[in-house]
Amino acid sequence: MANMDPIPVRVFSLNCWGIRYLSKYCSQRYHMIGDMLCKEKHDIVLLQEVWSEKDYLFLKKKLSCTHPYTHYFKSGVIGSGLAIFSKYRIHDTLLYRYSLNGYPYMAHHGDWFGGKAVGMAVLSLGNLTANVYVTHLHAEYNREKDSYLAHRVVQALELQQFIRHTSAGADVVILGGDLNMHPQDLGNRLLRSYTGLRDAYTETPNFDGCEGGVTLIADNPFISKKEIFPFEKGIRIDYILFKGSSRADIRCDSLSTTKGSVADSPFPYSDHEALTAELKLDSCVSAETGNDEAFKTPESSPGNLAELVDIVTEARTEVKVGLHCAERMRYTAARTGVMGLALLFLELLIAAVPWFALGAEQPFPQTSFYLLAALCFAILLTTSLLYIFYTIEIKSLQGAEDQMRLAVGSLHEKLRGFPVTQPQSSSQRSSEGQEPPALDPEE
Amino acid sequence: MANMDPIPVRVFSLNCWGIRYLSKYCSQRYHMIGDMLCKEKHDIVLLQEVWSEKDYLFLKKKLSCTHPYTHYFKSGVIGSGLAIFSKYRIHDTLLYRYSLNGYPYMAHHGDWFGGKAVGMAVLSLGNLTANVYVTHLHAEYNREKDSYLAHRVVQALELQQFIRHTSAGADVVILGGDLNMHPQDLGNRLLRSYTGLRDAYTETPNFDGCEGGVTLIADNPFISKKEIFPFEKGIRIDYILFKGSSRADIRCDSLSTTKGSVADSPFPYSDHEALTAELKLDSCVSAETGNDEAFKTPESSPGNLAELVDIVTEARTEVKVGLHCAERMRYTAARTGVMGLALLFLELLIAAVPWFALGAEQPFPQTSFYLLAALCFAILLTTSLLYIFYTIEIKSLQGAEDQMRLAVGSLHEKLRGFPVTQPQSSSQRSSEGQEPPALDPEE
């Protein structure tokens, strides 16, 4: 395949904040978003928090000429809120639901009800295959005392696993979405180090947007200062990430974000700022035999591997902390349930005493009896549900921890396989033949 | 990489029927399974229905010398029941939960409670990377009137998607498990045609087992004739499937199954028969540039593509039928709920009449009032839960149908891209540049 002109790809990502009847000016904002997308004609549009299918269908109709290929990722009762619009044909899609996503009783946070997931679409961009991912992780409501940290770390773990395992056949990978993590947060480091994904903001030579690339800013009228405290200027939690392969190079020529307002409009598109990245794709033939192994970024050097081991270990610690919390919560639920049961028995006992001893002398306090019994049943029902819920949480956290232990073991094995100095010498490697192909010299 | 001696890989798969206290001789059977695995020393052991973690830990301890690498796929309250034991290091694992899995109110079928999923493990077999999958699909309780058909088809769809998208980087793919589908069932055809996976039973020159390779047989003392009616000799629903890549060949030298009894034991390992396949892996360098595209089995000829289109269309029809059913069920739930609400209002009305008109002349029928009110609330609660549940089912079925529509569109596009006769002539292809790389000649 001879080198051709680079393919320009404009990618757009926005968290639409589309909760009907609850988000401010929801319908007007969708009209604005639709008009803008129609005009701007991005190649790939990645939207999050499109909670209502009606709004998706509105956009689909509006963009039918500019973006004929589209997919809405359905999941759960409310849906995943994820949508993709594309100029290029979508060949295939796959949705991966995260195993953890907050607590159902934290209804005011609402994350649990929207089944958070990562959606994948396989596109053909010219002669290249692009795997495009869109996702939205659990929100961070209190950075100081973040009770969802373990959940978000597990989501980041699953996100990087899903991307790594599904993108081996892709020439380029593009991820857009609201990660709800600051650039140097654990989950973000885990994602970037493991997958080799590069951040459009740090990679681009031309950035036009708010200082520091922040996407949740104080200047946005839908944002209260409280939400971004103590970061007065805002925080960067929305990203466009990308990586190439041995078969294609990818670079980001420019990145721009909205700045809290839209010209000729009384309010912005959303409470998040929108990102637009201009990417350039270049198909290439690697110097080697065209083997994928040539582009195994995260595991290509002992330094990277060692860093990765540190990050996974750190993540494992966070998951263990979360596991400890969940176990304590389950214990509390069980104890409360037992107390409810004891109360019920006590009540039955008290009720039985006048029955046997006093006869009909005193009137039986029927109302109090029923009220107390109802209370006991309510306690038992609630604690049983909580117990089941925490058991699921514990299983998921244990599963994530198991996977991390495996990963650390495998990374250590690879690290041992590396010779002290380049180039590789086969005598320095262990002789079990368990190294990955990337490390095996020709035999 | 020069060709080396083929790597022999012995793969074992068994549905363990491990429901503690319910499955017959559960603990004794685990001891038998453990002893046998210890003795046989298969390279890869894939187990299903290991519902209790305690039983997994028992096997893990027992096999610690022969199978040092192991993973138990945790999910939901009960778990996925999937476990893998390996002689080779497991580098990475990933679990994908199917979006549909029966109905919670069909408690006697139990499928809904065990979170059915497909587990993946990445292994290094010598210098080759193997993606090993283990899964267990929803059971078929009534072949004539299979109310779970749509669910199983969606599971098969998700299984093939997951395998296709995660195996691009693998040299060989091995899948073992209880698919709960006959060899020519729709889901099975969908899985095999789309992924290019080959069936060990049909591929092997040496088969030792029951006639027709059946794995649920009348001779097994745990099986009642009713379960396999009208197939007197049994049915084949457990499989070992495999495929190679441009970088490795794989063949099945022999396949054997148990035959309903175990020597020196009063009962067999499980109600399913166990499968053992002897595979041979051969790393090779393809004649081409080593590009993966050389091994795109299912899409390599117009005939295959056309067959695939037919199968996906058939699957789409089944999903539509399931969708229609689910919508009808949701409608029934909604109507029953409305009737419950009407009954409640009627009751309140009746209660209000004596209150206003009759005063204290007649005693108020308190007990009946409360009982009827409790009934109304029970109806409302049940129908609300069912309504939510059916909504989730409908969303999942719609999602699957959307994906199939996309897939058919993409397959048609590829079919159009094929020239009428080989070799390819670029003038016959559409000029939009949206064909996948496999079809693009060198430019």
TrEMBL record, chains A, B:
<keyword id="KW-0479">Metal-binding</keyword>
<feature type="compositionally biased region" description="Low complexity">
    <location>
        <begin position="422"/>
        <end position="437"/>
    </location>
</feature>
<comment type="similarity">
    <text>Belongs to the neutral sphingomyelinase family.</text>
</comment>
<dbReference type="GO" id="GO:0046872">
    <property type="term" value="F:metal ion binding"/>
</dbReference>
<keyword id="KW-0460">Magnesium</keyword>
<dbReference type="GO" id="GO:0016020">
    <property type="term" value="C:membrane"/>
</dbReference>
<keyword id="KW-0472">Membrane</keyword>
<keyword id="KW-0443">Lipid metabolism</keyword>
<feature type="region of interest" description="Disordered">
    <location>
        <begin position="419"/>
        <end position="443"/>
    </location>
</feature>
<feature type="domain" description="Endonuclease/exonuclease/phosphatase">
    <location>
        <begin position="13"/>
        <end position="272"/>
    </location>
</feature>
<comment type="pathway">
    <text>Sphingolipid metabolism.</text>
</comment>
<dbReference type="InterPro" id="IPR038772">
    <property type="entry name" value="Sph/SMPD2-like"/>
</dbReference>
<comment type="pathway">
    <text>Lipid metabolism; sphingolipid metabolism.</text>
</comment>
<dbReference type="InterPro" id="IPR036691">
    <property type="entry name" value="Endo/exonu/phosph_ase_sf"/>
</dbReference>
<keyword id="KW-0812">Transmembrane</keyword>
<keyword id="KW-0378">Hydrolase</keyword>
<dbReference type="GO" id="GO:0006665">
    <property type="term" value="P:sphingolipid metabolic process"/>
</dbReference>
<dbReference type="InterPro" id="IPR005135">
    <property type="entry name" value="Endo/exonuclease/phosphatase"/>
</dbReference>
<keyword id="KW-1133">Transmembrane helix</keyword>
<protein>
    <recommendedName>
        <fullName>Sphingomyelin phosphodiesterase 2</fullName>
        <ecNumber>3.1.4.12</ecNumber>
    </recommendedName>
</protein>
<dbReference type="Pfam" id="PF03372">
    <property type="entry name" value="Exo_endo_phos"/>
</dbReference>
<feature type="transmembrane region" description="Helical">
    <location>
        <begin position="369"/>
        <end position="390"/>
    </location>
</feature>
<dbReference type="GO" id="GO:0004767">
    <property type="term" value="F:sphingomyelin phosphodiesterase activity"/>
</dbReference>
<keyword id="KW-0746">Sphingolipid metabolism</keyword>
<feature type="transmembrane region" description="Helical">
    <location>
        <begin position="338"/>
        <end position="357"/>
    </location>
</feature>
